[in-house]
Amino acid sequence: MSSTAPPVEPPDTTGPSGETKPADSPLEIYRHSSAHLLAAAVTELFPEAQCGIGPPTDDGFFYDFLVPRPFTPEDLLAIEKKMAHIVKQNRPIERRLIPKPEALELFARKGQTLKCELIREKAGDQVQCYTMGEFIDFCLGPHLPSTGKIQAFKLKESPSQSYWKGKEGNPEMQRIYGYAFFTREELDAHLRKLEEAKRRDHRRLGRELDLFSIAEETGAGLILWHPKGGFIRMKMEDYWREAHLQGCYDIVFSPHIAKLDLWKTSGHTEYYRENMYAPIEIEDVEYQLKPMNCPFHITIYRSHMRSYRELPLRYAELGTVYRFERSGVLHGLLRVRGFTQDDAHLFCTPEQLDAEVVRVLDFVTMILRTFGFDRYDIFLSTRPAKSAGTDEQWETATRALKGALEKRALPYVVDPGEGVFYGPKIDIKIKDVLDRAWQCSTIQVDFNNPNRFSLEYIAEDGKAHQPVMVHRALLGSLERFFGVLIEHYAGAFPLWLAPVQAVVIPVADAHHEYAGKVADKMRAAGIRVQVDERAEKIGYKIREAQVQKVPYMFVVGKVESIDPAVQLVSVRHRTAGDLGSGTPLDEWIRKIVRLTAERATSEGEQPPTPGGVS
User: Which of 132, 238, 260, 558 gives 20 to 30 Å between its CA and that of 188?
Assistant: First the structure.
């Protein structure tokens, strides 16, 4: 499949105000030109439309428009048809420099008052514009030489709403998204991937599998866990606690609110205020709903003087936090207002820091592998413009993170300026089955909070020294990670996480008693099993179990129940289909118990071998 880029004009890196910008990649130029193609089509079909901005995106482009009425699906079909017509015309895309007064007059004459606003704010004496026939846009560029170079694009089915300049209170815009690739084959492959992502959407599967809901009565961004979803969450938590206890962590618990002064000391009111809810007044004292767990763990640490012999201390908590998110960015389980972080904070001596970071990195990769993730994008985020601490502290912390990644030979990308205010961090984005990256795990080194809270330990020299603090999350949050799990497995959770591992299906009423005995024996072995005694056909019951993503279906009838002492079953798997008829129940029990204990992420599609476990 070819990915050859069409020829483009040499990138112009000087903006209308004389500023410089990074050179765009050929694909970014292609997609930016596609955004202009969209704007040209819209303004020709809807002359009253005002153009906002139209940048490239990771898989295409979008453009914002101010229009008297929302676009309809029929409008979008007409716009896409017009875009194809403009491509066929092969209109030149030409760069023009226009004196600022003349440019303002030109755009005002076209009714493009939003463009006039941008020109006043951003342009220098000469305004850089690009034309596409009669269409003209104020733009830094660069662009393709002509519309005929745009070969593969597709508009999304419906527009979305946005605000002019992204600020509430400004005019509401209609945002049209599109996909753009160099070849039709690449575009078609991407559209198929999007269809598969739609099939795996955790919000749809959450409803169909009865896992969770978000109710208007409780509020947006707040999750209600249903019994099946609650069970899966419990299994995740049980494993998390087991792994942490084995990893020499101490489990702690902290309250949901604290006095506002605690957050002032930690620096959150200074650096994180926009993500926090308004304080709550209780008996004339201001309290804060917690956005983080770290100040509580710090308070536990300083509950008494520590010795170097106690360090490192590792406090872990499944702590629910609350952060202000605007309703427009909330997204099922992936972006919520209240969520449970799988949080931990490590307190160590400076000499222990390097080893602790390596240890945490190993712990992260082990936990992620257990849930079926072994591919990552790793980023080392460095000091942001707004930060606390000395240059020496930042250099020491960054060196420890970099050293751990290199010691474990994990490839990473430096992400300049994306650290948190108190220190640099490692971000690990897991790759799912569709090759999408999800931010989950993070490791952050912090010299700032130990200083703010005057943390100390008595060293070997008998003097008080300041410890180093490491913030660490593995799954990120249970809500977000659960959403990722749903989409990664398309709701067909690994056997050890499945809320129902097997369903016993009697062929007729006469076989209900035998089905009950089969289920009882499975329950006694710790298998999560149900019996489907409904008066429905066998095919319907099997389809229902498959829709509910139940791993195993045990069908029992006359053949299987002929000798109750032997206890035979006929088995189907949710994806592999028929795994054999008249096989011994005991062999399947052993297999399911073993796979559950191993936390296998693939059950294996073969039946047990006769006389033993496969």
Answer: 132
